[in-house]
Amino acid sequence: MNMFSSLMLASLSVLTLPIMSSILNTHKNSTYPHHVKNIISYAFITSLVPTMMFIHSGQETIISNWHWMTIQTLKLSLSFKLDYFSMIFVPVALFVTWSIMEFSLWYMHSDPYITRFFKYLLTFLITMMILVTANNLFQLFIGWEGVGIMSFLLIGWWYGRTDANTAALQAILYNRIGDIGFIMAMAWFLFNTNTWDLQQIFMLDPNLTNLPLLGLLLAATGKSAQFGLHPWLPSAMEGPTPVSALLHSSTMVVAGVFLLIRFHPLMENNKTIQSLTLCLGAITTLFTAICALTQNDIKKIIAFSTSSQLGLMIVTIGINQPYLAFLHICTHAFFKAMLFMCSGSIIHSLNDEQDIRKMGGLFNAMPFTTTSLIIGSLALTGMPFLTGFYSKDLIIETANTSYTNAWALLMTLIATSLTAVYSTRIIFFALLGQPRFLPLTTINENNPFLINSIKRLLIGSIFAGFFISNNIYPTTIPEMTMPIYMKLTALTVTILGFTLALELSLITHNLKLEHPTNMFKFSNLLGYYPTIMHRLPPLANLSMSQKSASLLLDSIWLENILPKSISQFQMKTSILISTQKGQIKLYFLSFLITLTLSMLLFNLHE
Amino acid sequence: MSLAHINIFLAFTVSLVGLLMYRSHLMSSLLCLEGMMLSLFVMATMVVLNTHFTLASMMPIILLVFAACERALGLSLLVMVSNTYGVDHVQNLNLLQC
User: Which residues cross the membrane (chain B)?
Assistant: First the structure.
């Protein structure tokens, strides 16, 4: 009798302890944030044990705890699915969250509501764990909505700022549109497979799964910011940097991809949906990489980088490689969170300056942050044998050697090289050159919280890929043999991107600033997508509904059709055809004479 | 024709001439129009009663009703003209405006 299920449940339930303590009002004291951070580190260590047991034995578990209700033939219960995906994701997520909590002890140090902040982050983590370990769609939906709500509360943390409120509302609205797809999928599964349990759905293996998979794809588009529902992710950078690091890089936005990965037994039989996901992911990754090229806010560039990597994950699902996508989720969490934390360190040191045109020369002033930023960027672009290499290179290789859409593949490769371009841009503007910030600096990165948290993620960014890849059991076999030019494709385009970006930056650094070209404006304004879609459809909708509701019935049918139209018609025609001048007496007199004459004529004719 | 008939007929003709030939006021032609209606009414009643044509005894009543409507219409036109100009002189009606 091993302690697999007990330890996993213990690890998940210790996370809820600090929330319970708010009932006892112990959360008002100032050590509450440290308390939360320690709880998460304990949960992480506790969850390592079941994970290592799982790696050793390959034993998957389903824990069905509590039967909630039965509605006619649908049985709803609290069940946790501890399989490959959730067992590996939970320690990774807990590790990253531990580092982010420690980072936010430094970052949010001067915030008066820091305990509330930590409570929100913890609630977010709990709902994310619910999402990841859910065995039925209902529990998954609870986690799904939970992360959406916490995202709203955390993006709008500084609610005095209008932009933050707008961004939080935008996140909710775009996620809601995705939720329509989710609910449609739930309804379809309820009707056709009579259940919301994943096991029964996969066992029944329904034939025509186009509709539910389209619904799940829409849900993933909304939650993971794919093209069409993507503008909320760059706007979500209005929240504090720990929020961006946790939610919008590692954990929440991968929920959509995670959903599609969960349903991979259904997706591998449906070629149409695979092509759709492939094209959607390819468009997303290229579009957001283009948008990232000319942004000036460091957090927005990293947000677009996240969006581009999410598109890459969706592409991986589209070529029927869910395990590779999952590996990329896990490795991406490390270096993306670290990139955000480094940008947070830079921002705080430069007194809340987020514009990269006003940074520079930090290479010597902040060595530790510089190191981790460069290593994070190298890991992101897939530098051989760092973390990103183990997932990203495998993805590109598999895409190259599989029977897939050449256009999608080309877009993915271009986006890979653009990844290197904008990473170089960040490094060049923020770290190299002469300082462009104000002389009175407050650059200080000597806080142990900051250093320890970034150091942990740094070690993770370097070694986690190797560590995870060597310890998971074999799933889909990657392609082992390919021509050498295909093997080196990812590396080549990345080095090409680096070189190009560096050369361009160095050459144009001292040139005169020109008027922005059309391409520049397209990239800077996010492809005009938010400008058009946030103004035109709401205006059209609202004006159409106003016209049909008030104008159509009242003023047209009741007023205009008969009464006013008749009066106007009469007036117009009478003006048109009247030739009289109002000489009434003349008309009457002529009438009388005619009458008299005709009577005389007819009477005296005999 | 008998003398009564000629009398009524003459009344009708006088009113007709008065309707068609008037000097300046629109009211006078409206009055003559009423006179025409009245003489027609009397003529119709006399004929119906003399020939005992009972079935047609509705006709004068209906004629009166329609005369009332027409009276109202004529008076409303008069009021419109009078609203614009203050007096109902016919020479004012040379501007056909809508």
Answer: 1-21, 25-45, 59-81
Quick one: pLDDT band at residue A388, thresholds 50, 70, 90? confident
Contact B20 A580 (CB under 8 A): no
Q: Which domains does chain B have, with CATH numbers?
A: 3-90 (1.10.287.3510)
Q: Identify the residue among A566, A577, A585 best suited for mutation to test binding to B, counting B beta carbons within 10 A and taking the highest.
A: A585
Q: Is A73 within 8 Å of A93 (Cβ atoms)?
A: no
- The answer to whether residue A575 neighbours chain B at the CB level (below 8 Å) is yes
**What residue of B is the nearest CA neighbor of A582?**
B94
- Chain B interface test: which of A577, A584, A590 (most B C-beta within 10 Å): A584
CB pairs under 8 A between A and B: 30
**pLDDT higher than 60, residue A61:** yes
Read off the pLDDT of each residue in A302-314 and give the average, rounded to a whole number.
Answer: 93
Chain B contact present for A576, CB below 8 A: no
DSSP code per residue over A100-137: HHHHHHHHTTT-TTHHHHHHHHHHHHHHHHHHHTBSBH
What is the complex's ipTM, to 2 decimals?
A: 0.81
Helix (H, G, I), strand (E, B) or coil at A207: coil
Q: Could you tell me the two tokens for A136?
A: 């039925």
Closest listed residue to residue A315, CA positions, set A416, A447, A214: A416
Residues in chain A with CB shorter than 8 Å from the CB of B90 are 584-585
Does B29 sit within 8 Å of A580, measured CB to CB? no
CA distance B33 to chain A (A): 13
What value does the mean pLDDT of chain A take?
Answer: 89
| Facing residue for B96 by CB, picked from A582, A589, A591 | A582
Contact indicator for A132, A93 with CB cutoff of 8 Å: yes
Q: Mind listing the pLDDT tens digit for each residue in A221-280?
A: 999 999 989 999 999 998 899 999 998 888 888 899 999 999 999 998 989 999 999 999
Select the more confidently predicted residue: B64 or A4: B64
**For residue A233, what are the contacts with CB-CB under 8 A and spacing of at least 6?**
A225, A248, A253, A303, A304, A306, A307
In this prediction, residues A183-188 reach a mean pLDDT of 94
Q: CB distance B96–A581 less than 8 Å?
A: yes
Q: A498: exposed, middle or buried (C-beta count within 10 Å: 0-12, 13-18, 19+)? A: buried
Residue A384 in tokens: 């051989």
Q: Which two tokens stand for residue A238?
A: 């209005």
The nearest alpha carbon in chain B to A575 belongs to: B98
* C-beta atoms surrounding A160 within 10 Å: 7
Distance CA A275, CA B37 (A): 90
Q: What per-residue confidence (pLDDT) applies to B1?
A: 62
How far is it between the farthest Cα atoms of chain B? 51
pLDDT higher than threshold 80 for residue A24: no
A584 to B16: CB separation less than 8 angstroms, yes or no: no
